[in-house]
Amino acid sequence: MLLAPSPAALAPLVGTTDFDTELARFLDTLTAVQLNDIEIACLQRQSAYYSAKLVTALRHRTREVVAARETDSRWPAVGVVFGTCEWENGCFWETTGQVRHLDGTRSTVDLDFDEVSGLLADLSGTERPCSGDRLRVDLRTGEVTTS
């Protein structure tokens, strides 16, 4: 079991040199397995954070593209699916997505929008997609899944 200082004990130190020193001292006491567990927990929290922000940004952006008649349907978007693209530094979520509308129509739309593209890049760092993976965003439920 991992024993860590309580967040309340560290809160006054956050953003200070003392915090960095205390955190380093604490991390130096951990085994490789414990450090791996912390890394996984941090990535899961980051992923959940980026996913929630992505849902909000996509709800906004899909409303804009539907209103601007950039889609094959005037019905609201209910989901978006993104594929992957490969760069020399890894695999990332594409900014072009398949938008699914309430009437069942699917539209391929470039959702490259400052906030959306940034969040997709951030999520690529935590989810670490592989070529051929899909990122599915349900705009009704807010659920974000990969496959």
Descriptive account of the structure:
- There is one protein chain.
- The protein is of the alpha+beta class.
- The mean pLDDT is 90.
- The two termini are 31 Å apart.
- The chain has helices at 7-10, 17-28, 32-67, 114-127, and strands spanning 77-87, 90-101, 106-110, 135-138, 144-146.
- It has a 5-stranded antiparallel β-sheet with strand order 3-2-1-4-5, covered by helices on one side.
- It has 4 helices and 5 strands.
- The radius of gyration is 19 Å and the shape is elongated.
- The longest helix has 36 residues, at 32-67.
What is the rounded distance between the termini? Answer: 31 Å
Outline: elongated
Tell me the number of helical segments per DSSP (H or I, 4 or more residues long): 4
Return Rg in Å. 19 Å
Based on secondary structure, the structural category is alpha+beta
Q: Tell me the helix content.
A: 40-55%
Q: Helix-strand pattern, N to C?
A: HHHEEEHEE
Total DSSP E strands: 5
- List the uncertain runs: none
Mean pLDDT: 90
Oligomer: single chain
Described by strand count, sense and barrel closure, the largest sheet is: 5 strands, antiparallel
Strand order of the largest sheet: 3-2-1-4-5
Strand content: 15-25%
